[in-house]
């Protein structure tokens, strides 16, 4: 999931239409490409784009739609969460500091408590605990239940062996436990491993005239076909999208376009567009699920238009975020990925020298 390849920016002129089509392509995790387009009957229109990528690049040309892939908790992201325990190499069993699984899935039935004792709960197959018969194997976990299966954490395998006191589980081989002081992924928090794949992340920039004859700069979402809407107003939907992540829960995912340095995002960076999925219950960890389409948008205030103009002239970034609560009652509030957009001038036949340092794409592995 961490392997990334970027495709170079290219430009095509649309003869006779008074418009220029700009395309920036990126592919990550075997999945998504990126492009931008614009067209206008009055004035001119422009597109700018990029999608989740990394530090390596290869040159190619291709035609198609635009998109981005966000893989939770990128190296360039900021992460916060509550309800996730700190790293531990052992577990207290069914109670105490390692309580039995809980449920916060809006009316679902909490999982039944594990059988066995606090020292030997049935759901963990701990070393030295009773097992059915010599030679039997089973998944095992010696860490806290709250981190099990999240981030880099994974079960090990144990084998039942005969001993003087009876048949017991042996060592838990191959398990990966949470670590203290590492990334959210290494700490094995919810929503730290996965992919939010957005098929289209392209804005359309339009310069036209208002009712008083004044020139107006406006940004709107491209439609599901990655085209500027002919009405030059927000389309009903911007993009389709899917989610595959390490924990079930109810989540809202948002994509925000900001003007600023994608290598050094600041809280003060202006934003001119945000599109969010409706709150959705993600059902099965590790299984791709289709989310509600991201709604269309358009700039409606002078501050948004000014920010969009800054983005068009100087480049900016897309910010992929998630908020919500897992079915295990962990609160989630994370930035998943930063997606780089180069200035529109970088798509021209004679791009400024500064464009050599701008590669459309996002942060690396997470």
Mean pLDDT: 73
How many alpha or pi helices? 1
Oligomeric state of shown chains: single chain
Largest sheet: 7 strands, antiparallel
What Rg is obtained from the alpha carbons, in whole angstroms?
Answer: 24 Å
Series of H and E elements: EEEEEEEEEEEEEEEEEEEEHEEE
Keywords:
2 domains; elongated; disordered N terminus; four-stranded antiparallel β-sheet; 366 residues; mainly beta; 23 strands; 1 helix; 4% helix; seven-stranded antiparallel β-sheet
How would you describe what is shown here?
By secondary structure, the chain is mainly beta. It has 2 domains: 4-81 and 192-362, no CATH class; 92-189, no CATH class. It has one helix spanning 302-314, and strands at 4-6, 10-14, 19-23, 26-28, 44-47, 68-70, 79-82, 137-140, 156-163, 166-169, 194-198, 203-209, 215-221, 237-239, 241-245, 249-259, 271-276, 280-282, 289-290, 294-295, 316-326, 331-341, 361-362. Strand 12 and strand 13 form a beta hairpin. The termini are close together. Residues 1-65 and 72-96 have low confidence and may be disordered.
